[in-house]
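The protein record filed below.
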Amino acid sequence: MRLLVAIFVVVSAVEVLRSNSHPEDVLTHVLSPPPYGVRWLVDAFWIGGSFGTIALLALLTALARRWMVLRDLVVGAAGALVVSGLLVLWLGASGGRPPSISFDGYVLSFPVLHVAVAIGVLTAGLPYLSRTVQRLLELVVFLAILATVVAGHGLPANVVGSMAIGWGVTAALHLGWGSPLGLPSGDELRVSLSDVGIDAVSVVPSAFQTWGVAHYQAVTRDGDPLTVSLYGRDAADVQLFRKLYRFVLYRDSGPALSLTRIHQVEHESSVTQLAAHAGVRVPEVLVASTVGPSHDGVLIARTPSGVSLPELKESDVTDDALDDLFRQMLALRSARIAHGSLNPHVIVVDVGGGSVALTDFNSGLSNPGTFLLDQDLAGAIACAGLATGPDRTVRSLVRVAPRNVIAGALTHLRRAGLDPSITVAMKGKRNLLDQLRTQAAHEAGIEVPELVEPRRLSWNQVLVAVGSLIGGWALIAVLINASHSIDTIRHAQWGWVVATAVLCWSAYVGGAVSDVGSVPGALPIGRVVGLELASSFTTLAGGNTAVLATQVRFFQQQGFDTSVAVTSSALVNVASLLVKLVLFLIAIPIAWSSFHFGNTLHQGNHAGILWTLLGVVVFIGVVLAAIFAVPRWRRHVHEKLRPKLSTVAANFKSLATQPVRLVKLFGGQVAAQLLVILGLGAALHAFDAHLSVAALVIVSTMAGVLASASPAGGGMGVAEAGLILALTAAEIPSHVATAAVFVQRSFTAYLPPIIGWFTLMWMRRREYL
């Protein structure tokens, strides 16, 4: 099947070469050429990622004396060379492209030899490597392929076809000689177990599997049920990746690293036996060793009698079983042992006896901190709640656990602190954790405790960091082009530069007037202007969350409550959006004919950035369309947004009865938007260029849409690229557009955060914040 797919992709690539499609032309201008200052980095990626990967795999294989692996690498490289040579003889050096067509700065040869060979060698060697090394090499080669296109050493269709050649050669190789991928089957493992004295008659994979460890259920000839945990060659790499992931995103990084498979087996065996010594019902460890030709680590234990919790009905789980679950958790806690990954699948209930056992201590930890012990109990509460509902769970918890222990566990009863399989099981039960927390606190006679944040970083923070990198790349391109326009900037008319500064900074006064109109009551305009300036720093440093926190603190210091700050922010944002939309709709019929995007979207580094951001905007649009097309998703979004929209609507209704506030809210936004737009016009006049106000509104709005698609603070970098491209489309020379945008953004994005930091410090000293 893979071979057929590879052949289809190669044939399709050849047809694209012959047709010389327009999308490929667009894509090449998006990706190439790179900014001059980073050309060396692009070259390093495509050379090192292709030739370097081939050399590294061959060298490591030879040093390890893995001759069968080296055979596959050589055959993969040779096969890619042979197929590439035959295609060159058949199609010619240009891959059959019409000779009248040329791509400036691009090598037209097909196949791209180093890509085909690198993919052939990589895919031949990947099955013999651990998963972490596989992903690392795949990332390196992907960057090499991308750099090949960016550097002009291969067109997109040529590169894709070359990748298919290397992949297809390896598919043919595996079809003929087989592939080493895959875990041992049940029969293979049954044979291997005899090496450690286990005479099993059947071995089948467990229904529930965890990443890095393969779980099996076995039955011996004597009828004893056994659980088998198999640690393959990926296990240590998985643990390393998991620990690194948790170290970066979570406060607790999990158990200590085990460098080998046998160490991991010994760790699970040790923690399991410590729990047994503490009186906890756990599997009886029989064997901790290695099996098979790959020396996989294996832990074999006698399965406790009973059924895992997800397989039981609510009526099957008695109150005695619930009580025993919490008693087992308290026994672990007393022995200072953490399970580490408590979920419904590791809880085994003996329906007849009303007892509970705990299994799978591969993430267990001895002598943990109270943080982990509280997390474990929170996981047990959530598992019990899923099985029997909040009422029975809470009554059992209060019967068994001390009040202070309950209080500690309730602080961790949130999705982010629980095992992922619990959060999956809670689909459709989003209020369960809140019910458990409030009812348990009420029954225990304590206040509902505040939740503990288990994560160091949220996904929003990660998204902002990625957006900042994107914005940084775009900003580098802007600054490089600005350095090329230095002569233009030197000859600027400095009176217009001063006018640009005055207009742009006056926009903060307009924003302050809008803020004053958004709240019921009087506010000193000077302090609100200071808040606007301070927000220019907090936007860059912490995003919208930091801005909202600053506003909440400011309004509290002025005698308003928190809800006023939230309401004010919502009103100002809606007013800003409406003002931008109205100005854009007014400007479109007046000035749209001034723009010619046909050529602009195919020129320079900024075009690539614009196409990328346009792709993001289109993707967001597709996602929104899908949400509104699927009734269940639409209802979910409606439930989320309805309270906020109702609040905003109610606030606007109250504003309608106070015309002065309404004028301040919208008038301030109109002034702020127009002042920034006029600032851009003044910057153009500084270089003897000009556009109508309507055209400037279109330029500003289009750049704002692109900047809003970037999570980077203030759309840094992306806004500049959008402004330059829109100005160029309005027939402003590129060097003038770059210089004018650099001047205008200096007074709207680069200098204000510096002033904003000093303003923030001043407001804190005066206790305005």
Notes: The beta strands are 200-205, 214-220, 225-231, 284-291, 296-302, 307-308, 337-338, 347-350, 355-358, 365-366. Residues 312 and 387 are 8 Å apart (CA to CA). The longest strand covers residues 284-291.
